[in-house]
Design a protein that fits this description.
alpha/beta, 37% helix
């Protein structure tokens, strides 16, 4: 006869702890007062508006209790990721029972008054949300939007060899695309250097009002599916508490023992062979231990248990005694003493100190965060003897810088590059000089840069997984970046939104320590689609990002490689932001020396004096640009204007930090009204070449004094064509920009008539040429900025190249280089 895993006494205690968690969960959902039911329940004890979800809660309480037991038995470093959408009552309740909630929020004490406060704050104005939010200690995963729990869990254990993340996956969540793909994450986990994820698939059978697929297929089919994904599932199924406790305890011990054995084998024998990691499938009734029947309708085990299983309000006063009966079924008088404190023998079941899942420091990653060891980005500077005299592929230059970042931090194992098979395509391949792609699946001849260990995770063609892995990595105290094609970063729009919201809330919680910023590098952008076409053209991520809170989001569009280096050095050093950097990978002119680039990027916006000719006077027109391609076309347009209309006074402004355009009252990077007017004037026409959709610039500047703003950017035109023709189709080319100036600047319509006709002829010539030759005209391909246009005293000075007036220029670049 097999010896039970649980002794009779432990079975009694763990069941009591589960009852306590269920009681506290129901109290959070319903109660405003009378937390221990010391008097008969009255409608005045119930919240006026009851909003929450019960269905997943008892199952998660069951899981949490058993995880506590194995943490104690095996001295595990573990925390909990709650994937089901609204399991807030369970996680909050368990974090309270283990004492962490009171440590973080001292006003929620371990007594009757504390229970009352805990209950009242839940889904209540001024309180906490019904899902697992940043306000919940021990959480790195917000349960509102489904699909990302498993990828977050894997991100957390990369480079964390001593950590286990227990990831509970709801069967509704398992139907989402990101979660369905994330089962494959086990092909990227190195048993030598990474931790382990213990997935617990919670099958309670229903979503809001529909059954779930994985709960309705045959057990054999489900097992085959999970085994086909590389897992070794252990099944815990039933509804009798005593039986289920024994089954769960046995499965938990088996899983933890298997994980330890697999890691020990890999680490002691230096064997990187991918194990078949264990997971648990828990099949239990939805709304387990809740009301069986209400108003003649079955509740437990049906979709009706998903949210609030019964209404308790002045219109349903007959439900008050039903609620009281339900809560008393957990026998609270056996669980809490007279003061409202959990009895000592149950307190002993919770782990202590940082072994409590709510107190695990990995779930408050800023506690563990260390600065990256950073190389001097100036060592990678592109030599620029004069503006536009040399060309470079900006992201290729950045790749060499990232290679050095990776190398310097290899021993600390706290920096990774993520991307959906685009690291080479985006010209960041220099990183493979010092590291490999991490890959634990089979290798064959001709594979490149694959190894069981590596600082690059880009071998999975899923933006969702890369985003989720990186978020989990950052939230547990490490650093990284996500490189992607610009158009396809839109796939993770919603994931970005959730992370930005998480950061926003964390800024309001003093106990949440700051984490490393989420850094996006968007390359292969809208203006570089020589062979891809319309499907690959979408700069709208910038519009989406700018919707978020100003204290969280940043957007940078460096015009050349030296500016890109300066910007990215800043981004990798920053904390608690989402930084979006858009950069090109094709060879383009380089405009600024490194010293000038550092000044320009530190300012974020500036007049390029070497390209302007309005010194000492008011400009007739302001030519502004933001982004590498718009900068090229604006400068080419300026060169045409200065050659053919030399009396025209032109001011050229380049924008690196997009948020500079917004008012200082709206964004901390924004320009004051006086500074904006000083740059752009109050009434002169502004011809603005922008990387993205034109209306974003209008939106950022709509409150400014100068209303004469004319933005040229992407307007949903383009196909497989030449680089210059992409600009022509969207009116961002130099010819259209010059004609725009002629049409708008007072007095130019006559003086510029012949030039305008010439440019219209050029556009026709361009179209004929590309249709015949398949490439842009030589005068486009070979165009260079004429350095004579930027000379004032026979040379191009640092002041001229930076476009920023500065005192003590001998020292400022060095100071700003460190600051950036």
């Amino acid at each position: 006869m097999t010896t039970p895993t649980l002794t009779t006494d432990m079975l009694r205690k763990i069941n009591a702890y589960w009852r306590a968690a269920n009681y506290v969960s129901v109290g959070q959902i319903y109660l405003y007062d009378n937390p221990l039911l010391k008097r008969p329940l009255d409608i005045s004890d119930v919240k006026p508006l009851v909003v929450s979800h019960w269905g997943t809660t008892p199952g998660q309480n069951f899981i949490y209790a058993h995880l506590n037991r194995v943490i104690n038995k095996f001295d595990l470093n573990m925390f909990y990721v709650a994937g089901p959408g609204h399991g807030g009552p369970a996680i909050v309740g368990n974090v309270y029972l283990e004492g962490t909630w009171s440590d973080v929020y001292p006003n929620v004490t371990q007594d009757e008054a504390g229970l009352k406060e805990l209950f009242k704050q839940f889904s209540f104005p001024g309180g906490i949300s019904s899902h697992v939010a940043p306000t919940t200690p021990g959480s790195i995963h917000e349960g509102g939007e489904l699909g990302y729990s498993l990828s977050h869990a894997f991100g957390a254990v990369f480079d964390n060899p001593g950590l286990i993340v227990a990831c509970v996956i709801g069967d509704g969540e398992a139907e989402t695309g990101p979660l369905a793909t994330s089962w494959q994450s086990n092909k990227f986990l190195d048993p030598l250097t990474d931790g382990a994820v213990l997935p617990i698939l919670h099958l309670n059978g229903y979503k809001i009002s529909n059954p779930t697929i994985l709960a309705r297929i045959e057990s054999e089919e489900l097992e085959q599916f999970l085994r086909g994904c590389g897992w070794a599932p252990l099944f815990v199924e039933g509804d009798d508490p005593d039986t289920m406790h024994e089954l769960m305890a046995t499965a938990m011990e088996s899983a933890i023992t298997d994980i330890g054995r697999m890691q020990s084998t890999a680490r002691n024998q230096k064997n990187p062979t991918r194990p078949r990691w264990p997971m648990i499938v828990l099949r239990s009734p939805k709304g387990w231990t809740g009301p069986k029947i209400v108003d003649g309708l079955p509740i437990e085990g049906t979709f009706r248990a998903h949210q609030v299983p019964m209404l308790v309000d002045p219109e349903h006063l007959d439900h008050v005694p039903l609620l009281e009966t339900w809560m008393r079924s957990y026998r609270p008088e056996e669980l809490f003493d007279a003061s409202g404190r959990l009895i000592p023998e149950l307190q002993e079941l919770a782990p202590k100190g940082n072994r409590r899942m709510g107190a695990n420091p990995h779930a408050n990653g800023g506690l563990l965060l260390h600065d990256l060891k950073m190389p001097d980005f100036c060592d990678h500077a592109v030599k620029v003897s004069s503006p536009g005299a040399s060309k470079a592929c900006d992201t290729a230059v950045l790749g060499e810088f990232l290679r050095d970042v990776a190398k310097l931090n290899q021993s600390d194992r706290n920096f990774r590059v993520f991307g959906p098979d685009e690291t080479l395509s985006n010209l960041l391949g220099a990183v493979f000089e010092v590291t490999n792609r991490q890959w634990d699946a089979r290798e064959v001849n001709n594979d490149e840069f694959l190894a069981p260990q590596g600082q690059v995770l880009d071998s999975m063609l899923s933006e969702h997984q890369c985003e989720g892995w990186l978020e989990g990595y950052l939230l547990t105290g490490r650093h990284g970046l996500f490189n992607s094609y610009e158009a396809f970063i839109r796939i993770v729009d919603s994931m970005f939104s959730q992370h930005a919201k998480w950061l926003k809330v964390c800024l309001e919680l003093p106990w949440r320590r700051k984490i490393s910023s989420l850094n996006y590098l968007l390359a292969s952008h809208v203006w570089q689609q020589d062979h891809n076409g319309f499907t690959h053209q979408d700069p709208g991520f910038l519009d989406h990002v700018i919707n978020k809170k100003a204290d969280v989001v940043r957007a940078y569009l460096p015009p050349d490689a030296n500016c890109l280096l300066s910007v990215f050095d800043h981004c990798l050093r920053s904390r608690n932001y989402v930084n979006v950097v858009v950069a090109g990978k094709h060879a383009l002119p380089q405009w600024l020396s490194m010293d000038a680039a550092v000044i320009h990027c530190t300012e974020g916006i500036g007049i390029w004096q070497w390209a302007s000719n309005d010194q000492g006077s008011e400009p007739d027109v302001v030519m502004a640009c933001c982004g590498d391609t718009p900068t090229l076309e604006i400068l080419a347009a300026v060169s045409i204007l200065r050659e053919h209309l030399p009396e025209l006074k032109i001011r050229v402004i380049n924008v690196v930090d997009l948020m500079k355009l917004q008012s200082a009252s709206e964004h901390p990077h924004g320009l004051s009204e006086s500074d904006y007017d000083s740059l752009f004037t109050q009434d002169k026409h502004i011809i603005f070449g922008f990387h993205g959709y034109p209306w974003l610039v209008h939106r950022l500047t709509y409150r400014r004094t100068n209303r004469n703003l004319h933005v040229r950017g992407y307007k949903e035109e383009g196909t497989i064509t030449t680089p210059f023709d992409m600009r022509v189709q969207n009116d961002l080319d130099r010819y259209h920009l010059v004609m725009d100036v002629i049409d708008r600047v007072p007095g130019l319509s006559k003086a510029g008539a012949y030039l305008k006709q010439k440019l219209q002829d050029k556009l026709i010539e361009h179209k004929h040429y590309i249709n015949k030759h398949g490439q842009d005209m030589p005068e486009i391909r070979n165009w260079q900025w004429d350095p004579r246009q930027g000379r004032h005293d026979g040379k191009v000075s640092i002041e001229a190249m930076s476009g920023i007036e500065s005192k003590s220029l001998a020292t400022k670049p060095e100071i700003l280089r460190k600051a950036s």
